[in-house]
Amino acid sequence: MALSKLDNLYRAVILDHSSSPRHSGELTAGCVVDLNNPTCGDVIRLHVQFDGDKISDLAFSGHGCTISTASASMMTEAVLGKTKEEAIALAQVFSEMVTGQESPEQEKLGDAQFLAGVSKFPQRVKCSTLAWNALKKAIETDNGEAIIESEHL
Q1: What is the pTM assigned to this prediction?
Q2: What residues form the membrane-spanning segments (predicted)?
Q3: The domain at 2-152 falls in which architecture?
Q4: Tens digits of per-residue pLDDT, 5-15?
Q5: How far is CA 37 from CA 1, 14, 84, in A?
Q6: In whole angstroms, what is the distance from residue 69 CA to residue 31 CA?
Q7: Which residues of 25-54 are buried (b: 16+ CB within 10 A; e: fewer)?
Q8: C-alpha Rg value of the chain to the nearest Å
Q9: What are 102-130's pLDDT values in tens digits?
Q10: CB of 14 within 8 A of CB of 67?
């Protein structure tokens, strides 16, 4: 019975992030990365502003499945205010988590740790990692106003 209640909580948090995504929209400055997942049809445009080594603001737009949208929302909350190094480390922890590897670092993901169940559905891993991959590209290519053309995952 307790597991069922926990599953319901996880579903509720995921649905909340999907239906009311945090940091949804666009920014007027910063790095912009477009990625899509042709398998599912998910598309994300991630805007990231850096203040030196820190992520000072970020927003995303696009369309996608519940998992993709929730993951993008959760990712923005997890990495805002973090350094580039911290954000890359969180992206790595997230990627490992959704492929079935457990880590004590998962708690640092905030609500994103509720997506651990994605590991039971391999076809949803790309949906869940789309925003995180866009973040990694933004960090890797940050040079002010960089715009990365659409890429397929």
Answers
A1: 0.90
A2: none
A3: Alpha-Beta Complex (3.90)
A4: 767 777 899 99
A5: 36, 19, 24
A6: 20
A7: eebeebbbbbbbbeebebbbbbbbbbeeeb
A8: 15
A9: 999 999 999 999 999 999 999 999 999 99
A10: yes
